[in-house]
Every structure is written in structure tokens, then in C-alpha cells.
UniProtKB/TrEMBL annotation:
Stretches that traverse the bilayer: 33-50, 62-83, 95-117, 123-142, 149-170
GO molecular function: diguanylate cyclase activity
Protein name: diguanylate cyclase
InterPro entries, alphabetized: Diguanylate_Cyclase, GGDEF_dom, Nucleotide_cyclase, Rev_trsase/Diguanyl_cyclase
The enzyme's E.C. designation: 2.7.7.65
PANTHER family according to UniProt: DIGUANYLATE CYCLASE DGCM-RELATED (PTHR45138:SF9), REGULATORY COMPONENTS OF SENSORY TRANSDUCTION SYSTEM (PTHR45138)
Domain GGDEF: 242-374
Reaction equations catalysed: 2 GTP = 3',3'-c-di-GMP + 2 diphosphate
């Protein structure tokens, strides 16, 4: 059974390494919201325009004025849909959402001014529309308060002075704006709660994904994650004829460490080994805990020449300095088997070669490196070229 430990304090903020993934996640949500909003706007704006006569009676001038107020919303919704379904123009959903939000606010506030100064009897229809619009616009602020303030503050900051300039007193405005404002607050609280829920769900999923690909003791990649990377690198090698190398390391006489000092100290040795090995590789290389006391290093686009250099650094990283574990100082060494691959055969045979080479290293005295080249690939160096192994395993 897989034992997944759930952290006691779940993340509240997105940790730095996950920020890019979170940004991608937000962009997907924005895209979905933008498409749904565009369809809703397209349908409702057209519907309201063509039921104008039914709702407000015949007045060609008002019909045209309303059409002019609704046109920008229609255009923004159409632009969003065209951009989504054809890929052109390439607009970020964040900006399309902004354009739709601002155009809806401009539309509804303009309609208010038109009807307030003209046919006063229609004003309650418009304030109903305001309530719906204010709520709808809060849904568009997927990124939270910053977007929210932009969508509401800018149009309202223009609307109030314009209304005052038109001779509408602030006192007269307030009763009409009261319900829409309440709706705006409700919408804000709801969309903020939704945003926090989405963030929490993202963080929980990301944590589970990390746990599924990470070895709990050492924090390194686990075997499953490494196999995925290996498949990718193998496919790349096959396609471009590049060479990658594998180094399989196994701690020497590690059973003795456990037997002598206990399992807890053995665990510390494994953690320190992971730490030291990690320092010997580049960011583009991968290191995993392959099994109990086995570690596998994948060196993409690296021939045996370069890999041998890394393997020797890894060997010395352990052999040169004893490990401090509790009150014990443990001289732990590692044996390493190496191979390279040009993608010719399958991954399993490359791993098998590294394993056979490791077996040779154990046979030949431990704390040393052995190389088995891929068939047809001459090793540029042999194990004999490597500094003779020092014995010293505990
Ligand atoms: N402390 C600890 N020990 C582990 C863990 N996983 C595997 N081991 C131990 O690693 C030891 C491996 O021992 P062996 O396979 O006999 O090999 P060795 O003693 O290292 O000898 P050689 O490989 O031949 O040099 C066993 O005692 C396992 O219990 C772990 O997570 N923690």
C-alpha cells in the first residue's frame, strides 16, 4: 500500500518552484472563464438588444443609443471567441477578460446615464441590469483583488464625475447604486472564495504529484520519475543520435552500517549520500534513489568521457570525507557502474549494462568505477584509466 503523508500545515502561498505551474494553471482557468463569459455576453447582449421594443416600447433613437453602448461588449466577446477557436489574434485571456469586464461596466453605466437623463421610467430595468452586470464582472476577475479593483474602480471613477457633470446629485444616485454595490460585494466575496479554493486544490494536487515522484527519505526523484525521464532522454537520443550516459552507484557494505549503528544512522548515511551526489551533477542531469542503497544518475547528451569525470567526482565525494551521523563518523564508499547509450537498443539493456558494470566494480574490490560501453560504442577510457580504487568501506 502506498503511504502518502499529508503535511500538517498545508501551503498557503505558492512555493517558488511551483510558480510557473501555477501561472499555467491560472491561464487555463482564465481561458475557460473567458470563453464561457464571451458566449454568455454574446447571447444576452443580442437578446437584450432585440427585445428592446418589447421591454421599453418603440423609440428608434434609444434603440440606436443602446446598440452603440452594447457594441463594444459584442466586439470584445467576438474577439475572445475568434481568438479562442482560430488561435488568431494571439491574445492572452487575461487581457480579453479585462476588455470584456471594462466594456460591460461601460455599457451598463452608460445605459444608466442615458435612461436616467431621458426616459426615467425605464431606470429600474437598467438598475436590474446593473445588479446582474456587477455580479457578472466579479466573476471575470480570476486573478483576484487587483483585477477586481481595475474592473470596478476605473469605470466608476469615470462614471461618478460624468453623472455629477450631467446634474445628477450624489444623493439621487445612491438609491440606484445601492443594490448593484451590494451585489458587487457578494460577487467579490464569492469569487475570492472560489479563487482560494482553486489555489488550495492546485497546491494539494501539486503536493501529491511531488510525493508520487519523490523519494521520501532522501528527497531525490524516485525510480518511477527517473524511468519517465529516461524514456524522454532515450527517445531524444534515438531521434537525434545524441549520447546519454548512466551511472549506477551502490553503497559499499551498507548492511554493515545498519547492523552496527542501527537503521536510523543508516538513513542519515543515505540522506548524506544523496546530498553529496547531488552536488556533483548539473541542473540538467537527474539523480534518483533507484533502490534501497542504489542511486542512478542520468547525464543527458553526455558521452562516456564526460560521464567518467562525474562518476569519479561522485566516488570521491564519499570516499574523501567521512560522514558525521549522530556521534559516529562513518567512512562510507560507493561503487559505480557506467554505460552510455545512443538510443539504439531499449532502455532496459542500457540499465542492465550499468548494473553489470556495477557488479564488476563490486567484484573488483568496491569503491571503484567500471564501464561497459554500448555495443558498437568504444569506451574512450577503460576502468584501468581510473585512479585505482581505495578500499575503505566500513
Ligand atoms: N537504513 C536503511 N537501510 C536500507 C534502506 N534500504 C535498504 N537498506 C539496507 O541496505 C542494505 C543493503 O545490503 P546488501 O544488499 O547486502 O549490500 P551491502 O551490505 O551494501 O554490500 P555490497 O553492496 O555488496 O557492498 C540492507 O541491509 C538493507 O536493509 C533504507 O531505506 N534505510
Amino acid at each position: 500500500m502506498v503511504n502518502i503523508s499529508i503535511p500538517k500545515t498545508p501551503y498557503r502561498k505558492v512555493p517558488a518552484p511551483w510558480r510557473a505551474a501555477y501561472e499555467a494553471h491560472i491561464q487555463i482557468v482564465e481561458r475557460q472563464v473567458a470563453v464561457v463569459a464571451a458566449w454568455v455576453l454574446l447571447i444576452t447582449v443580442v437578446f437584450y438588444q432585440f427585445t428592446h421594443q418589447l421591454r421599453l416600447g418603440h423609440n428608434a433613437d434609444v434603440w440606436l443609443t443602446e446598440a452603440a453602448c452594447r457594441l463594444p461588449v459584442l466586439l470584445c466577446a467576438l474577439l475572445t471567441l475568434v481568438s479562442h477557436y482560430t488561435g488568431k489574434p494571439r491574445c492572452q485571456s487575461r487581457y480579453l477578460l479585462r476588455a470584456m469586464g471594462l466594456s460591460v461596466m461601460t455599457m451598463i453605466l452608460s445605459l444608466f446615464l442615458v435612461h436616467y437623463s431621458g426616459q426615467h421610467e425605464n431606470i429600474y430595468q437598467v438598475t436590474n441590469g446593473m445588479v446582474i452586470s456587477f455580479f457578472g464582472v466579479t466573476v471575470l476577475s480570476v486573478r483576484g483583488p487587483k483585477e477586481f479593483w481595475l474592473l470596478f474602480a476605473v469605470p466608476l471613477a469615470i462614471f461618478v464625475p460624468v453623472a455629477l457633470a450631467m446634474g445628477i446629485a450624489t444623493k439621487a444616485l445612491l438609491p440606484f447604486l445601492f443594490d448593484p454595490m451590494v451585489m458587487m460585494v457578494i460577487g467579490f466575496v464569492l469569487s475570492e472564495a472560489l479563487r482560494q479554493l482553486r489555489k488550495g486544490e492546485f497546491l494539494a494536487r501539486q503536493q501529491l504529484r511531488e510525493q508520487a515522484t519523490t523519494d521520501q527519505l532522501t528527497g531525490l526523484l524516485n525510480r518511477r520519475a527517473m524511468l519517465q525521464l529516461l524514456e524522454q532522454e532515450h527517445a531524444r537520443a534515438q531521434r537525434y543520435g545524441a549520447t546519454y550516459s548512466l551511472i549506477l552507484g551502490d553503497l559499499d557494505r551498507f548492511k554493515g552500517v545498519n547492523d552496527r549503528y542501527g537503521h536510523n544512522i543508516g538513513d542519515i548515511v543515505l540522506q548524506e549520500t544523496a546530498h553529496r551526489l547531488k552536488r556533483q551533477i548539473r541542473a540538467e542531469d537527474a539523480l534518483c534513489r533507484w533502490g534501497g542503497e542504489e542511486f542512478l544518475i542520468l547525464l543527458p547528451q553526455t558521452s562516456l568521457d564526460g560521464a567518467l569525470h562525474v562518476a569519479e567526482k561522485a566516488r570521491l565525494a564519499l570516499a574523501d570525507e567521512p560522514m558525521e551521523a549522530g556521534e559516529h563518523s562513518i567512512h562510507q564508499t560507493i561503487s559505480l557502474g557506467m554505460t552510455s547509450c545512443q538510443g539504439g537498443n531499449d532502455i532496459e539493456s542500457a540499465i542492465k549494462r550499468a548494473d553489470d558494470a556495477l557488479y564488476l566494480a563490486k567484484e573488483n574490490g568496491r569503491n571503484r568505477i567500471e564501464v561497459i560501453a554500448a555495443p558498437g560504442l568504444e569506451p574512450p577510457v577503460t576502468a584501468d584509466d581510473i585512479k585505482p580504487a581505495q578500499t575503505g568501506a566500513p
